[in-house]
Design brief:
Chain lengths: ~325, ~325
């Protein structure tokens, strides 16, 4: 690294786009400097408001995020967008999407957009997303929008980062409320009924409200349903206001602190895991030793529990 | 435990349903006896053929698995079914489903069905599913069917256990091939076009084949498309034969050994992680210490990296 970490941190604090981009790459590659950088920036984080946006493909999440970002920019808020697609093994589409999205904000220094589309980041996509969110927070972004596809464990881990979670649905996509994954109901703070000019919007809203009426409110909050037509910029202001209401409610109820402590419990646990595994499997021959053990186990020459105990004993980690 | 582990293992080997059920509960609860039991049974595993079945809700996976199981039973194969739904926070539905499914096989000792529907098993659902598959393998099941919903990371981890992965699609569910998650294409060894008597089956098959023609075969295998109407038991024999062909191809290509070594690399890594974390956070006050640290970090009194280093240093694990 040609730039010393303290200077790099200074550039990030000033919102320098190239410094931020370089930091994200370092985070993705799990480089030691990324940790050093985040360590220095950490005290200045915790100010940004994180909004997670999730929904199946075709619901218009990207357009919605784009319009929400534009809304915040008009109100002089600095905005960061992290678009995560853990199901995509290719970055091509995401990069193309970035370019298209970037164009409309190209000259805007208060807007930062980044896609994270590949699996297999060292240490996991959720960790990398969380660290990028911290970075954008330290870079002075007021609003950080985290967009992710679907509701697998990965995505759930990602949206859990957010202070407020939007679940986007559209009429007539065949995902009847009955078939809707239970996971979605659990994580939604606000439902967005996008493409609300389509046939079936009224029916979907009715179904949704009927289902929501059966669910206990969490900390006094009943997830509302907001209608939008993101492609026409309709309903965006109303959505932003609803996010604002949730934020107020959330902060008043003391839920924010509790959620943040829960969040950091998970994060610390993940950090502990990766530290320890690096200790046992680090070094040039770590991967080879693991492969050798796996072969012995696959051939039933050794059981997995004995294999692991032997690896731990040899690694010098006292267990 | 009233029964000594060696006797318990003996009962599992003999296919005793109550012994198997008790072992699954021990696995789910991450009890020490489960490990002791699996250690004893391990040498006798590796014989069962594992078929994973995945697809979005409403594709008729359960019926398909049920009919496939019945097909194997008619041919005197002992069958185990593990139905996993990581998105369901409730076990109610799954248990009800089990009962309904059990009824048709109630008096059949060669058939074992178990649902695993809750998140938050100690050590993860993928780990628990993998250990239950080992157990059923040791219990002499020839065919183990693992049924799971969707394609999140959790589900991907689960189906990766399988020797053969079926992806189930149905016509007219709005999931156009274009919207189909890339993850599904990657993991499918065989596509099942279920409810093939519905309108749109031909179009879906065409789309699927067009898409498959663009994909490189893996180890010389082109994922075929098999049409079924599971509710009418149509196409089940043809599907079972295709699974048999894949098995032959798979074993001839040497892919099986390679896949098993990869599988055990992941499993050993997970075991290492959970062992080490238990060491650092085990004991009566482990959870409390983690919560305390998380609070300090959430309040920005300490950065997460320093917090983790301190916890590791105190734990006696040499890092």
């Amino acid at each position: 690294m040609s730039v010393p970490v303290e200077k790099w941190a200074e550039q990030v604090r000033a919102g320098d786009v190239r410094a931020i981009s370089r930091a994200i790459t370092a985070i993705e590659n799990h480089q030691a400097e990324a940790e050093e950088l985040l360590r220095r920036l950490f005290a200045e984080t915790g100010r940004a408001y994180l909004t997670g946006v999730t929904g199946t493909p075709g619901t218009g999440k990207s357009t919605l995020v784009d319009r929400l970002a534009a809304y915040y920019r008009k109100r002089q808020k600095a905005v960061g967008v992290i678009a995560v697609d853990p199901t995509s093994p290719y970055t091509g589409g995401a990069i193309l999407g970035d370019r298209i999205r970037m164009q409309s904000h190209a000259s805007d220094q208060g807007m930062f957009i980044r896609s994270m589309a590949t699996r297999g980041f060292m240490g996991g996509l959720a960790r990398a997303t969380a660290e990028v969110a911290l970075l954008l927070d330290a870079a002075g972004k007021h609003e950080v929008l985290i967009e992710t596809v679907g509701v697998g464990q990965d995505e759930t881990d990602i949206v859990r980062l957010a202070d407020c979670v939007l679940v986007v649905l559209v009429p007539g996509m065949g995902d009847d409320i009955q078939n809707m994954k239970a996971g979605l109901m659990e994580i939604a703070d606000i439902f967005v009924l996008n493409k609300a000019d389509r046939e079936g919007a009224g029916r979907l809203e009715q179904q949704l409200k009927a289902m929501l009426s059966l669910v206990m409110p969490r900390d006094g909050w009943h997830p509302p349903v907001v209608r939008t037509v993101a492609s026409e910029s309709q309903g965006i202001e109303s959505l932003a206001e609803t996010i604002g209401e949730f934020r107020k409610h959330f902060e008043a109820s003391g839920q924010r602190e509790r959620k943040h402590v829960e969040h950091w419990k998970r994060r610390l646990l993940e950090l502990i895991e990766s530290r320890l595994v690096e200790r046992v499997l680090g070094g040039a021959d770590g991967e080879a030793r693991l492969a050798e053990m796996a072969k012995e186990v696959a051939e039933r020459r050794k059981d997995p529990f004995t294999a692991v105990n032997e690896m731990l004993a040899k690694s010098g980690v006292v267990v």
